[in-house]
Amino acid sequence: MTVAAHRSAGVTVKRSNPMKHRDQSPSLPKRARDMTVADRRQVIEQLGLGRDLNDATLTHLAENSVALDFGRRSFIYRAGDPPDSLFAIAKGRIKLSRIEQGTGREAVIDILSAGALFGESALYSTGGPRENFAIAYEQSRVLRIPAEVFQVGMTEDGQLHNYTFRLLGQRLENAERRLADFALNAIPARLERLLAEFSERYGVLESDGVLIDIPLPHREIASIVGSTRESVTVSLNAMRREGTIDFVRRRILIKRPQSRAASGN
């Protein structure tokens, strides 16, 4: 697969061809409770974890999972809940965060989209409660898979076992990278890195650049990069004045170099 890239004042946008579509979710019944085992199996097959699973594992996960719908800002789980299940996103996006008791300050860990698995602490928890929150970033549907069901699948299917360890490794690497980013880089550099990452994960090709197709309020961005809403607003406005980005329908557009040149004339 070829990878194209363009650089926008420090923001490098990588994109794979073809570009992502706005909605890649499989066709689903209108309500989660109407989903059959076959529907749940179809969802699992189209998730990142389901591409190489054997038939018995797919059936095992589908028969023992439950589909649930969540409205925007609803909690899938909270800190303090028992880590007894994993969750696969069938549609929508889920925000993972940690909220400080007393102050209510939030640190966003990640925003995951359809096809992702989360709640994996259920696999390695030593009996303690969850420490993070999982919140629906928009109207979402997830499959809840009991931890013991998932563990049986890992034991019986080497592909699921390998996928899970790769997932854990990737998330550990991401956490280490963010720690280094916080220690070594100032806010503008962290912001540029975030925009580059999100343009790759959520980017949709537009005529004059790549649109990050997810609403990103400044307070959310601030909680991801470890800053304040005011500082993020100042940095984003500076990037907009430079012609690096623009704001389109409450979303951020990473502009092409030629679009920036044309707008500066």
What does this molecule look like?
The chain has 265 residues and is of the alpha+beta class. Residues 1-9 and 14-19 have low confidence and may be disordered. Strand 6 (93-99) and strand 7 (106-113) form a beta hairpin. The chain contains nine helices and 14 strands. The longest helix has 27 residues, at 158-184. Strands 3-10-5-8 form a four-stranded antiparallel β-sheet. The chain has a four-stranded antiparallel β-sheet with strand order 4-9-6-7. The chain folds into two domains: 3-19 and 187-264, Winged helix-like DNA-binding domain superfamily/Winged helix DNA-binding domain (Arc Repressor Mutant, subunit A), CATH 1.10.10.10; 32-179, Jelly Rolls, CATH 2.60.120.10. It is globular, with a radius of gyration of 20 Å.
Shape: globular
Domain count: the total is 2
Q: What's the Cα radius of gyration?
A: 20 Å
**Count of helical segments?**
9
How many runs of DSSP E, i.e. beta strands? 14
Oligomer: single chain
Beta percentage is 25-35%
Largest sheet: 4 strands, antiparallel
Instruction: Provide the CATH superfamily of the largest domain.
Output: Jelly Rolls
Low-confidence stretches: 1-9, 14-19
**Order of strands in the sheet with most strands:** 3-10-5-8
Spatial gap, N to C terminus: 36 Å
Query: What name does the CATH topology of the largest domain carry?
Result: Jelly Rolls
CATH architecture of the largest domain: Sandwich
The SS-based structural class is alpha+beta
CATH class of the largest domain: Mainly Beta
Helix content: 40-55%
Whole-number mean pLDDT = 85
Q: What are the secondary-structure elements, in order, as H or E? A: EEHHEEEEEEHEEHHHEEHHEEH
